[in-house]
Amino acid sequence: MVNLRVEVRKRLWGNAGNRCAFAGCGQRLVGDLGNPNQASGEDIGVFGEEAHIRSSKVTGPRYDAAFPTGQLNEYENLVLLCPTHHTVIDKGGGRAWSTVNVLAMKHTHEAHVDAVMGSDAKTRLELEVALAARIDRWDASIDLAEWEELSRRLNYVFPYVTSEQWSALTSTSSWLAGLKWPLQYPKLSAAFETHGAVLRALVRHLTEAFVPEGNQHTIRRRHKERWFGGSDGEQQYTEAISQFGVDDAVTVVLITELTRSVNLVIEAVNDELIPLYRFNDGAVQMIEGDVFWGLWASPPHYGPLDWDSFPRAYVLSDIAQRVRNELQGGDPRNGVTMDFAAFDPRHTADGKNGFEVHAEGGRS
Description:
This protein is mainly alpha-helical. It contains nine helices and nine strands. The two termini are 39 Å apart.
């Protein structure tokens, strides 16, 4: 399965009508594994193959040195086929199927699909292609490709982010805040509302509890900033180090919850828009630990997933206060730890944890 932008994949599969483009084939490309001609069943599988019209390899079928490299994985250079006919057009270096032939096959098939499509189906496809473009923008804006590194930095003993990451999180949060999602996609709407709420809480926390240092934003350590002397020096030091303890724990809570919300978005996209989103990559991973003691990865998610419980609200001041209570003030010298996997940071009217969440791993 080729790694394609969501918009490209949605256009390709939608315009092909989920059928093989080879003349006379018409094989359904997503269906029941027991009976591939059925669209639904107990065991759904993907049979379609996103075939390149012009190969990226010099020795590959229909290689074209004049074709722009950046366009190889775009819609115009792809055709949707069943495994058999993908093999047919590529066999023998593609000598039996020229670029012109394959393009004609694709255009003929898509014209047929378009002709039998009702106006409602066409309108829905146009909307879904536009939504897919929005997903692509979100994926790039929040930099899912580097999510593990972001989570490693925010789970570090002294959490930090680069200035580029801080800017990306901030701009993504502002962009998402202004979006509306179509009512016919309730999971997408609920997932992004939840994700946006967590992201806003994290951005505010980074703004209030982190300070710029060179090309980074690092958690503030007031207890290291000056000498605490005088009659109330000990008390001031305790307050400063306790604030660090709370801020550090809140950071872990928020990056864990934000990762959960990212995986919630992925599930919503898979359920309502395109099942092949992140087909090769799956859920995003969160990195914990450090190089000295060891690193480990986990894919935090809401579990069991109950869509009726979304969207969820998050209030930073509420989270911070409950973290402070859990840590009995926050002073790391008191030896009190938190079970981050069991802590529920969502906002409820009574400020209590109201449901169980699941995550593998977690600092305690």
